[in-house]
């Protein structure tokens, strides 16, 4: 059982654009709150939620995403990567309807939890789907489209929310939340035109379809193309080894798999522990602390999301030319530095506002105007720039690359589950954190970033330029030490050469042009 049969599109970048509308849903739901939580209409209607209650509203998306991530793997293995994304959309339609009709905070939380189930499934399975259809040397640039979609969703929804803030009464936030139906409609419209993952087809025994899809993606339908044959050989050998390894939860820890499970889950945890979502969710709060209120504060916060897109777009051009390890380590160090500067400036240049800045009970201190306030804003932007260039895209790419074929769907669900558990915890922690430990919140995140940099260096081998099957070796018991691994050096080149030699009847002349394309 699956989606109706429609003509299929095999251009990988076009496929990625449609599939990553799932990321746009994620982005829409994130900023459906960030532009609205500071508006008078929202605060009056919901009776000025503060502290733990506002934390619960903000983190409800993550709570639902934990549940969605937990069920995503089994569903994806059963009905396929593409169809699991389609299935997730139904939770979004119901959740958005509940949000639009919300009369109190409990109903609003319920709607966001339902939306979160969709985000949990799509955030785990869209990267799996993209990783399984992309060529090894282009996988990063394909998977990063997911992150760009998230960021475009954040930007678009933020300014929709900002525009709707000029509407009177509850219509302001209800109209903004209602626009969340739009990306879901286009995602559901486009999914039937996408092919299934060739690796999932192979996993469920549909080898003929798998080879045909692989050929259409890699070689315009030529199933005899050497690249197709070489990659199919790798898929077949890996799949056979995994079938012999058995089933159940033990496959996530047996024969060195614990290293991959640890890497996939921890890289997603560190994305949250690095603290960038303090900016993504609550930059409007920081802008108010720095004295930017009203339309100036809202627009200043919104520009952040445009900066996010611009620099992730820059990284889209270079993601497969730069090692994953390098970006993770340097990104964590850079973000840590920004956190320390923001926390340090706030510590020495703030004054208490017990009644709340602008009457907002979540913001009980402000930064002195002039250079201190400007420094806080500049380094808040700089932190987002570093995040957009490094951890934001790379954590999702790395998590999608480390799993074996037999564990990828459920493994990526575990990775996304880790992301959303920490997202939920930090979402609950941040509003009370601003109240109880104030600027020290940034010092905490700065220390975590430094620890993260060490973790990345010690435990994560380089996966850039490797086939998904080659990653098996990197995490094997005889694999190299992570700090001794390098990008590229794919063995697929040698396997492709072997296929070419076999086709030519033993002619050993090198085929330079074909090899260079790999």
TrEMBL record:
Xref: PROSITE patterns: MFS, SUGAR_TRANSPORT_1, SUGAR_TRANSPORT_2
Domain Major facilitator superfamily (MFS) profile: 15-464
Main location: membrane
Transmembrane segments: 12-38, 50-72, 84-102, 108-130, 142-163, 175-194, 269-290, 302-319, 326-347, 378-399, 411-429, 441-460
SUPFAM superfamilies: MFS general substrate transporter
Pfam family, any one: Sugar_tr
GO MF term list: carbohydrate:proton symporter activity
Compartment(s) of residence: Membrane
Record's keyword terms, sorted: Glycoprotein, Membrane, Transmembrane, Transmembrane helix, Transport
Keyword Transit peptide: no
GO cellular component: membrane
This protein's record includes keyword Transcription: no
Topological type in the membrane: Multi-pass membrane protein
Alphabetized InterPro entries for the sequence: MFS_dom, MFS_sugar_transport-like, MFS_Sugar_Transporters, MFS_trans_sf, Sugar/inositol_transpt, Sugar_transporter_CS
Recorded family membership: Belongs to the major facilitator superfamily. Sugar transporter (TC 2.A.1.1) family.
NCBIfam families assigned to the protein according to its UniProt record, in alphabetical order: SP
Protein name stated in the entry: Major facilitator superfamily (MFS) profile domain-containing protein
Organism expressing this protein natively: Neoarthrinium moseri
